[in-house]
Design a protein that fits this description.
By secondary structure, the protein is mostly helical. The chain has helices at 2-20, 25-47, 68-99. The protein is built from three helices and no strands.
Length: 112
């Protein structure tokens, strides 16, 4: 299972970085969303335990209890990534309305 998490995280991270480097601002915003997903998967994969006991139960049975801190960090990271993505999409909307293009090379103010 660790190999699947590693491959999925690496593929999402690579795809996110590739999309960020594109000239189209919408594709770059999608790249940020994919990159945020890869980071959340990485945080979740580093703190996951192979246990039968959930983190939110009161009964400690035979086995190791999952760490609730990792789940709280991932939930917090999801909220922060949604906020950052909303801000990024607002900036893309303003740039597209002001310069009437989504190509980052055609925006004159970014070249100065």
């Amino acid at each position: 299972m660790d190999v699947i998490f590693a491959l999925a995280t690496g593929a999402l991270f690579g795809l996110g970085v590739f999309q960020i480097l594109r000239r189209d601002l919408i594709k770059a915003a999608m790249g940020f969303a994919i990159l945020f997903t890869a980071i959340n998967l990485f945080i979740f994969a580093t703190g996951a335990y192979d246990s039968d006991v959930a983190a939110y139960t009161d009964q400690i049975e035979n086995g190791q209890v999952s760490d609730p801190l990792v789940q709280a960090l991932v939930l917090t990271a999801i909220v922060v990534s949604f906020g950052a993505l909303a801000l990024l999409l607002a900036v893309v909307n303003i740039v597209s309305a002001r310069y009437e293009t989504l190509d980052s090379d055609q925006v004159d103010a970014l070249q100065k």
